[in-house]
Amino acid sequence: MSNHKIEIRRANVEKILLGAEKVFAEKGFAGAAMADIAAEVQLPRSNLHYYFSTKTELYSAVLLGLLDVWKQDALCFETYDDPRLVLSSYIRAKMNHSRTRPYGSKVWANEIIHGAPSLGRALDASLYDWAKMKEAKIRQWVADKRILPVEPASVLYMIWASTQHYADFDHQVNILNDHQPLSDIQFERAVQTVTSVILRGIGLEP
After folding, report:
1. CATH number for the domain including 97?
2. What domain range includes position 70?
3. Residues 67, 125: contact at Cβ < 8 Å?
4. Would you give per-residue pLDDT tens digits along the chain (206 residues)?
């Protein structure tokens, strides 16, 4: 396969996955149809089936793609050692994706709420070790007295809950913001507030 064809394939797959995020978020897995997704991405339905033979295969690809995105967000845990820098970077990355990929966050939340029926054991393999590595890093900070004694898992849960709220409950956020999406300035203040609360809670200054 030529480089040009590879690039076309990559672009089409990315386009389909992003469009599928939106349709699955709005209609759920059961309510979504491949025809809906084809219409969303403005491609013939046959093109979708060329890349993804079934709706189930496409749905799984969306979920695993989202997990990869969030793993990329957490690379700061491996790149840096300073807890302030690591957590500030992680929170900002999570917040930014809540703003740029809100449909993906909703699809993920719906899958988890229903007990991960599609991901199943794949979720254990993909999520468990990854999360435990992050917990170990936080636990080491506690042992080194670089942060206050905290339960590492709870810190991660608070970060996930507060950052993903801006995607999963964006309609509520907009209602409370006079029925308007947050402006760039408001969103930056939100990032700084979440960061400040988390850091101060473990004994660090923002």
Report:
1. 1.10.357.10
2. 3-201
3. no
4. 677 677 878 888 999 999 999 999 999 999 999 999 999 999 898 888 899 999 999 999 999 899 889 889 999 999 999 999 999 999 999 999 999 999 999 999 999 999 888 887 777 777 888 899 999 999 999 999 999 999 999 999 999 999 999 999 999 999 999 999 999 999 999 999 999 999 999 999 98
For every residue of 116-153, DSSP letters joined together read -TTTTHHHIIIIIHHHHHHHHHHHHHHHTTSS----HH
Inside any domain, residue 206: no
Q: Which two tokens stand for residue 90?
A: 């992680």
